[in-house]
Structures are given as C-alpha cells and as structure tokens.
What we know:
12 strands; alpha/beta; 10 helices; 6-stranded mixed sheet; D-Maltodextrin-Binding Protein, domain 2; Arc Repressor Mutant, subunit A; two-stranded antiparallel ribbon
Amino acid sequence: MAPMELTTLRQVRAIAQHGHVTRAAHALGISQPALSAMLKKLEADLGLELFHRTGRGVELTEAGRVFLRHAEDALRASEQARRAVRALAGLEGGSIALGGGATAITCLLPPVISAFRRAHPGLRFSVREAGSRAVAQGVLSGELDLGIVTLPLEGPGTADLLVRPWAEDALKLIVPPGHRLSGARSFRWKDIAAGEPMIAFEAGSAVRMVIDRALAEHGVSPDVVMELRSIEGIKRMVEAGVGMALVSRFALGPGEGLDCREGGVSRSLAIVRRRDRVPSPAAAAFEKLLIGSAPGGPAGGRAARAARGPSR
C-alpha cells in the first residue's frame, strides 16, 4: 500500500468528527462523491471498514478508531514540524554555532551576541574558541555556521569558504609594572631588547605567526617564556611581571598599550562561511548584524586584498 497523504488523514478525521460524509465534504470544501470515493479506496487498501454506515450517517468501527488515533498523531506531528520551521524562519528558535580566536570570542563577539539575543531571545548560541585554522575547518565540516579568522587563510578546502573582510586590528605592546617602557605611549623595535622575556600566543596560531613574522622582519629576538591562548591570561601574566606581550587593541582600554612608531603589527579579521550552503535564517541574520557591527567601521582595502590571499 502506498504511503498515505496528510490530506487523506484530515479527510478521515473530518468524517469522524461530523459523523456524516456529506457534512464532512461540505466542511472540507470538496464534493460528496469525491470524499466517498476516497473512503472507499482507503478501506479497500486497508482491507477493513473504518465506518459503519447507518441511516443517520457513519460511525467508527474498531479499526476506524485505531486508524483515527494514529492519524491524529501524524497530523499533530506534522503541525509541530510546521510550527518549528516557521519559528526558525521567524528567528523564534534554533541555534547558531560560531567559532573564533581569543580576540573575537573575548572582546568582539559578546556585545554583538548580546544585542542579537535581546532581539531574538529564543535563539541559542554555541561558541567555540580556537585558532583560525581550526575555525575554518569547523566551518568547512559543517560543525560551525560562521567563523571569525585572521587573514590570509591557507590550507585544504579554504577555497570553498566565502570570506567577508570584517575588521582591521593593530597589536599593541603591553609591559609589566616598573618596566623601562612603563608610562611610554609608543615604542621602537629596538626597545625590545634581545632576550627580553615575552608572553606569546600559542605556537601555530594565526596571530602568533603574524607577530613572529613582524619580529623577524625587524631583527627582534625576545625570549618567549610562556605561550597562552587566552588574552586575559596573557594580560594577567604581564601584570604579574612575567614578561611583555603584543595583544590586540580590542583587548585594551583607552590609553592602554604602546603603539609602534615604525610600522607596527597589524592583521585583518574576516567572517567566513561555506560557499555552497545556504545559511539558516538565524545564521544569515546574525552574519548581517556582524557585518554591520564591524569594530572600527567597515574593513578597508587591505583586508579585501588579504582575503584574496598572498600575491604570487
């Protein structure tokens, strides 16, 4: 027997509710002969009568009561599915999975997520802090809807990502209390002495590679005495006198950190998602809010160039 359509289930329910085929047909807006033909065919397919025919109309048989109970379950499940999908489309429910590095998760995403949740309190967020490479792979695998990464992206599959330049970030130097640079507003690369204790982001992370490249280009060789993923952890270690560090301007308050006077360390942040997948209504709405909430205004031309990867 072929699977039954929901229309058939609704028609059987209407006949049972009205106790009369003609009245049920009128309520459903179809002809009585069409409804009678449906019922006759259904009973033939089942091999059992669903209704007793009486002079006053029809009554459910035992088989009809069993059938109707399951029909009601199916119709209820169908309606729940409809409501769930409508809720997603109306941003009344669902979830968004995000990934990003320490700067994005600690400093940039909280106010944006807060604003989005105020507008759509039924949505849930899953937020993963990881390096740019791991975030990109999470987006590619479908574990994450959106990611915030440092450009340029390299590695297998990155061509399948849609990359939207988002923000320009400058890294500023922070030093322990009592350091010779304490109270200064800027620094030169030669101010970082050889062997100077430095706290760095974990090796292999995108921001660490940006920092290491800048130090090497300027002939600076500090002593990395500690590696951490957490920006707050790095700041606390600097405050405790363990060493100096280069951290995002977004992690610092007004007047904090030293700018470099000789072409400092900067990077471009971007939003990524898969090219070949249509985002859910919730993810699409959040991506739109992210783009409009770019810190420091829309990302500029350098970010767009970085999105295309290194020149060849």
